[in-house]
Specification:
Blueprint lengths: L1 H17 L11 E8 L10 E4 L5 E3 L5 E6 L5 E6 L6 E5 L7 E4 L10 E2 L7 E2 L7 E4 L1 H7 L4 H8 L3 E5 L6 E5 L2 E2 L3 E5 L2 E2 L19 E8 L3 H4 L6 E7 L7 E9 L3 E12 L2 E12 L2 E3 L8 E5 L5 E5 L7 E3 L1 E16 L2 E15 L6 E19 L2 E16 L8 E19 L3 E16 L9 E16 L4 E12 L3 E14 L2 E12 L3 H5 L1 E4 L5 E4 L7 E14 L2 E13 L2 E5 L6 E5 L3 E13 L4 E13 L1 E2 L2 E2 L6 E13 L2 E12 L2 E6 L5 E6 L2 E12 L3 E8 L22 E9 H4 L3
Parallel strand pairs: 1-7, 14-17, 36-40
Antiparallel strand pairs: 1-4, 2-3, 2-5, 5-6, 8-9, 10-16, 11-12, 12-13, 14-15, 16-17, 18-19, 18-51, 19-20, 20-25, 21-24, 22-23, 25-26, 26-27, 27-28, 28-29, 29-30, 30-31, 31-32, 32-33, 33-34, 34-37, 35-36, 37-38, 38-41, 39-40, 41-42, 42-45, 43-44, 45-46, 46-49, 47-48, 49-50, 50-51
Length: 746
């Protein structure tokens, strides 16, 4: 099978290359150079400049200057884009001595931002045929989040974070799908590890290191594989774009949270480097009953640790673990010439989870990864991208006695990918790739923590055609074939259509989702609680999950207004669930009855020229996951997010104010008790807001003062509801950041 995949890929690659000019390699190189500025004449560093219909282009330096070479002297069209500004296009003739100058003006909307996740190619957001949302650096600054969870809760309706059983780490649901159905990536590479259940560890993302976040809704298995049934979240990190780049930031909150971060980097000619370091801490906390009384029991756990447990049975109290995180990120790149570039990214992460009461270290999560990449342009229209990712994620039990820590979880992954992109006859963009994924997993759920390991391999071939039929109509179609070491071959097709009529853009599509059972779902054998309370078993007879989703959206953009309505319907077959065994004593993974997801999203945004931005989004989700006629889903059907942001410059001081809010409706759900009966739970609606006031001063100083949970919302019945993170009341936050390059005038 491996040989067949390789043969197919290289046949595809060869046939595509034949469409290019066979004399391209022999043609001389012609220089294209210029400068990109704002209306005040100040250079815009990091702006994108490229030739339409090719893979050729460059980013601007610290002065806004750009320079690259073309192998043809024929006339071409340059496209220039920069976040927050209207893009420009201009016809040019390479080879002359002209210096091309572009003056960009502020944009009324974000639809001109260039994204990559939805198609694996650079495209303006307004031209992407699949539903895509971008959270910009400006959006992140408005929320001033401590972590990824804090940001996404204010930015995305239809999403909810809860607490996982056991670890207490965040657990995500998105559009009715669990976290294991949504693929999280950093710079286009999947994140390994399991923080809780089948969710990744969301604390791996350092928000001070994030440039923007691209979110693609709906099944993306065609390009990204098994984990992308519900969508893709791609976190794009910052790069060095000046001869010297430096930032330092300090954050403190009254609810026992703090963060310190430092980044240093350089871009000198063909070489660039950026190093980021961060430390963040939040103490564990508890929500108490109205009288503020909590009873504790002190005991020795099965590992001999002195432990404390809070009595929650009658007091309606819930506790949330804290954390102490150290993290380092390194990015390096070197450009040999216009056709050849290499890069190397690496990360290290250590998270000590803190228990409530004694703030004692409970678990330790760690991760390190390395990601080399090679970019090679065959010619102006054809490019190869080779990448390798090694990632090692671990979890250890940490003891307070003289006993050493014990490794209970290890996720070792290797991914090798060769991706081809070709711009053929102007209207066609072909993307093809071959990929090999390997995983070795040690889990404390395997053989009750004996250290047993399991492994799996997946061999992949994918193909996608992006066809611009006309200026108003485009088609995106693709297919991915997965060959799994246990489940064999499976093909996942997808098609998306986009039609533009004046200010109206219509999108529609169909996609098949595909999720292979995880190694934990296949091989678990775990004594929950360690004292024979009940067992959790895997199921080696599980079948892969299959989903079919249809989507439709209508978007209107006119002047300062942008609004959209989108809907989707998803049907799952052989959905994997965890339920009681036939004797009602233990639990086991099984393929459940068919499940459906139906949803509607509405978004509206106004960007006034006086600096005021108003944005609101609403999501409706109808989730049915039935057992014996009872709906076991706990997804809140209605949710709403809203933002009001105002910014104004007074002399050399820029001031801003941002109000962010989120509302989630109440929900009724059922669960099956040990006696075999069904019990209904009801959870109240939730509303919480944040207010952030910011000031940016000369010489790179920026200060933000914020109030989180502005109206002091506190949950009720939190003990039973694990689908949300309990709120502990109002919080006050202060953040000071300094741009070292601006401070030193470098």
């Amino acid at each position: 099978m491996r040989c067949k995949l390789l043969i197919l890929f290289f046949i595809l690659l060869s046939s595509s290359a034949l469409m290019a000019d066979e004399h391209t390699h022999e043609a001389p190189a012609f220089k294209v150079q210029g400068i990109v500025t704002d209306e005040k004449g100040e250079g815009l560093p990091g702006a994108s400049v490229w030739v339409k219909g090719t893979v050729v282009g460059a980013g601007t330096n610290a002065k806004g200057e750009f320079s690259f070479k073309l192998s043809s002297k024929n006339k071409c069209v340059l496209r220039v884009s920069f976040t927050g500004y209207e893009p420009q296009e201009r016809e040019v003739t390479p080879g002359g001595d002209s210096l091309y100058r572009f003056v960009l003006t502020p944009s009324n909307n974000a639809l001109n931002e260039v994204v990559i996740t939805g198609t694996r190619t650079l495209k303006p957001l307004k031209d992407v045929p699949v539903l895509t949302r971008v959270i910009s650096q400006e959006d992140i600054a408005q929320v001033n989040p401590l972590d990824l969870q804090s940001l996404l809760e204010y930015e995305m309706p239809g999403l909810q974070f809860g607490l996982a059983h056991g670890s207490g780490l965040p657990e995500l649901k998105f559009q009715g799908s669990a976290g294991g159905y949504v693929l999280f990536m950093i710079d286009g590479e999947r994140i390994a590890g399991e923080g809780s259940s089948n969710n990744i560890d969301y604390s791996l993302i350092d928000m001070d290191n994030v440039e923007r976040i691209e979110i693609v809704k709906g099944p993306m298995s065609t390009l990204y594989g098994s984990q992308a049934m519900g969508g893709v979240v791609n976190i794009i990190t910052k790069d060095a774009n000046r001869p010297f780049t430096g930032n330092v930031s300090v954050r403190y909150g009254n609810n026992d949270e703090s963060k310190y971060s430092l980044s240093l980097g350089t871009k000198q000619g063909r070489f660039s480097a950026l190093t980021s370091l961060s430390y963040r801490k939040r103490d564990a906390y508890a929500l108490k009953d109205e009288e503020g009384q909590i009873e504790y029991s002190y005991y020795k756990d099965i590992y001999g640790r002195d432990s404390v447990v809070a009595d929650t049975s009658e007091k309606g109290m819930s506790s949330v673990n804290g954390f102490e995180i150290w993290q380092a990120n390194q990015k390096l790149s070197y450009t040999f010439n216009e056709n050849f570039r290499i890069s190397l990214n690496g990360t290290y992460y250590n998270n000590d989870v803190l228990e409530y009461v004694e703030q004692k270290e409970k678990d330790r999560f760690s991760n390190y990864s390395i990601n080399p990449r090679v970019y090679y342009a065959i010619n102006d229209s054809h490019i190869l991208d080779f990448s390798y990712v090694f990632e090692n994620y671990e979890k250890r039990y940490v003891y307070t006695t003289s006993l050493p820590s014990k490794k209970v979880f290890g996720d070792l992954t290797n991914t090798v990918r060769l991706n081809y992109t070709g711009y053929i006859h102007e209207k066609h963009t072909l993307t093809a790739g071959i990929e090999v994924n390997t995983q070795k997993l040690q889990h404390y759920w395997f053989d009750n923590g004996s250290g047993k390991k399991f492994d799996a391999q997946t061999y992949v071939l994918y193909l996608q055609e992006d066809y611009e039929v006309s200026d108003s109509f485009s088609v995106l179609a693709g297919v991915r074939s997965d060959c799994h070491s246990k489940y064999g071959f499976h093909a996942s097709p997808k098609i998306s259509l986009m039609y533009k009529y004046g200010v109206l853009t219509l999108r529609g599509g169909y996609g098949m989702g595909f999720r292979i059972p995880s190694l934990k779902e296949l091989h678990s054998e775990y004594d929950m609680g360690g004292q024979g309370f009940f067992m959790i078993y895997g199921n080696e007879d599980l079948e892969p999950e299959i989903s079919h989703q249809g989507t439709f959206s209508a978007e209107v953009t006119k002047g300062i207004f942008n609004g959209s309505v989108s809907g989707y319907y998803t049907r799952f077959f052989d959905e994997i669930a965890l339920g009681l065994t036939s004797d009602g004593k233990d639990q086991q993974y099984y393929n459940a009855d068919d499940a459906t997801r139906t949803g509607v999203d509405v978004m509206a945004q106004f960007r006034f020229k006086n600096g005021l931005t108003l944005k609101g989004a609403y999501a409706y989700i109808d989730v049915h996951s039935e057992v014996d006629g009872y709906n076991m889903a706990s997804d809140r059907p209605h949710s709403l997010t809203f933002t009001a942001n105002y910014s104004k410059t007074f002399g050399k001081v820029a001031l801003s104010a941002a109000l962010n809010g989120r509302w989630m409706s109440s929900v009724e759900t059922w669960y099956k008790n040990s006696a075999g009966g069904y019990v209904k739970n009801e959870y109240e609606s939730r509303t919480f807001c944040s207010l952030n006031l910011g000031a940016r001063f000369p010489r790179g100083f920026r200060f933000t003062a914020g109030i989180d949970n502005l109206f002091d919302f506190k949950d009720k019945n939190v003990t039973a509801d694990q689908s949300v993170t309990p709120q502990r009341g109002i919080g006050f936050i202060g953040t000071l950041s300094v741009n070292i390059a601006d401070l030193l005038k470098l």
